[in-house]
Structure formats: C-alpha cells, structure tokens
Automatic annotation (TrEMBL):
Residues 10-327 form the Nucleotidyl transferase domain. One of its GO terms (molecular function) is UTP:glucose-1-phosphate uridylyltransferase activity. InterPro entries: GalU_uridylyltTrfase_bac/arc (IPR005771), NTP_transferase_dom (IPR005835), Nucleotide-diphossugar_trans (IPR029044). Keywords: Nucleotidyltransferase, Transferase. Its EC number is 2.7.7.9. It comes from Naegleria lovaniensis. This is UTP--glucose-1-phosphate uridylyltransferase.
Length: 332
C-alpha cells in the first residue's frame, strides 16, 4: 500500500543547456525569466514550476501543509551557487511600501527555500539517471510515491472547472493508489521525438469529460510507423471520440504521448538500476520511460488526459520565445 499523501517533488535541471547557449553559459536555463500572468511578475522558470506544483499538492490534499512538502532539485555542481543565491540570499532592497504582489512573491520564495534540498548529478547520464540519484537520500521508503517534473516545461489550463492537469493527477493517485502519467495527443509525424503509450480501457471521466482516466498497456519510445502499426498504438475512431480529437486530412493517425508530468512509485528505481547495469541505454543515457514500461505493463500505472491544457517548452530558443507569449496568454 502506497503512502496516502503525495509530498515529494523531484525536478532535474542538470542538463548543459547547449540549445540555449550562449546565455546558458552564465545562467542556468532553469533561471531564465518568464512573465507570470498571475501577478505580472518576472520569475525564473524554476520558481513557476515549483509554485504550480505546491499549489496543486496543497489544494488537493487539504490535510497537509507547506511544511510537509519536500522539493529536490537535481543539478550540476556549477549550477548550485546561482540557484542557492536566488532562493537563500536576502532581498537586496526593503519590502516596506512595496506592492503587495512583490511581498507575496518574496514570501513564496522564502517558504519554498525552507523545503528545498539539492542533489548533485555528477555524470550527465540522462533523465532516468537524474531520478535514480534520489534513491536512498531523498526517496527513503519502499512504498513512497513522488512527483517528477521537467525543469524546462511550464503548463497552462483553460479547463471550464479551473482544475489543472496536476490536480486531476493527484485525484487519480489518491483514488487508485497507483503511479500516474499525464497524457497528450500527437500526430504520427511527431513520434520521432516522443514516447508513445498504448491505452487500455477508459476508467472514468470527470467534469463532463474534461479529464479522462485510462488504463495503460505499454509504452514505446519514439516508435516508427511499423512499430505503431504492429503494437496498435494508433487511436481508434471510438478513442478519438472519447478524447474529443478532430483528425485533420494531413494527420492520418493520432497517438497518445507523454505530457511531461509523472507521479512515480519507488519501484521504478529497481528498473532504472537494472537497465543501467545491463547497458539498456538510449544514446548512452538511462531512459526513464524504459524503466516505467514494466510498471505500466503490470497494470500499476494509469494515465490522465486533460482537455484544454497546454505545455510550454522553454528549453530551445524559438520555443522559449513562443512560450513566453503563450504562457502569458493562458496557453492560447
């Protein structure tokens, strides 16, 4: 039985940021600025990611407090000083007579700082390896679940209920007591850059189909057309209707892919270690999705698809520029 509450957050940010060079030579890309429409303040990407996660955890688990939440940042040694300076250095000016939104933001930074810890990823061996670095020192119990977030993605929701994707995921975790994967749809031409999942039965939906909870059968990383056909990864007409997807003439097939937010359980660590030990790597890196596959195929993970939700990639120059605009406009 998993622990009832979800309180631990893992955010790997240790990549070199080569696609954002030369700016990333001086500033970790997790500290690149984004204008937050909530309060019209310019914030580092990392702060926005953490604030959204904390807000969802507290709103969906009213019996926990900020003091219960633990946040682990996986980073390189040379990234640590600037990250620490942002969260722990005193404010260089007095907050007296400053606008309330500035005071609130400063309080948020201070509260988050109290719950932070850092783990150094000494070798850049991939996202899965970054998660593995948390075993024993951060995820200490065999029945723990934890939230894993990408360090360069931010999310917006335009749902009628105002419920975010992560909030729905937390609800699914509490109800089903399993790992939870966020889902999105992609066209066949985009599978070269995405892990794809085969869905099973629809378990239930919330708010008139705004969120769909589904069983998962398997996952394949960046499948070819032949693999997609053989493993029946293409969505059927019925599934297209259930997910309210309109197929265009240009896109012959639609598939389900990862959305980038995961609630994982501690049994993923064994799979990560086994894959690393046995040399089951992708381009020399430990792949998190490969370690998730046995858990998915055993029926111990479910998927959550939320309509009217967008992700904004800040890890590449053009996408970063687009994301600044789309995020401020609520994902439009």
């Amino acid at each position: 039985m998993l622990k009832q509450h979800l309180t631990k957050i893992i955010i790997p940010i240790a990549g070199y940021g080569t696609r954002m060079f030369p700016a990333s030579k001086v500033i970790p890309k997790a500290l690149f600025p984004v204008l937050d429409p909530k309060d019209n303040l310019c914030k580092p990407i990392l702060l926005i990611i953490i604030e959204h996660a904390v807000e969802a955890l507290l709103s969906e688990q009213p019996d926990i407090s900020m003091k219960d939440i633990q946040i682990c940042i996986i980073l390189q040694e040379n990234q640590k000083p600037l990250i620490e300076e942002f969260f722990f250095a005193p404010c260089p000016f007095s907050m007296e007579n400053k606008p309330q939104e500035l005071k609130d933001s400063w309080n948020s930074i201070q509260n988050i700082a109290k719950q932070l810890r850092f783990i150094i990823q000494k070798e850049q061996l991939g996202f899965g390896h970054a998660v593995l670095c948390c075993e024993e020192s951060f995820i200490t119990e065999p029945n723990e679940a934890f939230l894993v977030l990408l360090g360069d993605h931010i999310y917006t929701s335009r749902t009628k209920s105002g419920t975010s994707c992560l909030q729905y995921m937390i609800r699914a975790f509490k109800k089903y007591q399993k790992g939870v994967v966020s889902l999105a749809t992609i066209s066949e031409k985009d599978t070269f850059a995405n892990g794809v999942l085969k869905i099973g039965d629809i378990l239930e939906s919330e708010n008139h189909g705004e969120a769909i909870y589904t069983s998962l059968l398997t996952t394949i990383e960046k499948p070819t057309s032949e693999q997609s056909e053989r493993h029946q990864l293409y969505l059927t007409e019925k599934e297209m209707q259930q997910f309210n997807i309109t197929k265009t003439i240009a896109d012959k097939h639609e598939l389900i892919c990862y959305f980038g937010i995961d609630i994982l359980t501690s049994d993923v660590f064994k799979n990560l270690k086994d894959n690393w030990k046995n040399g089951l790597l992708h381009n020399g890196e430990v792949n998190l999705r490969d370690a998730m596959r046995p858990i998915i195929e055993s029926g111990n993970m479910i998927g959550v698809y939320v309509k009217d939700t967008s992700r904004h990639d800040t890890g590449m120059p053009f996408e970063y520029w687009q994301s600044l605009q789309h995020y401020y406009n609520g994902g439009a």
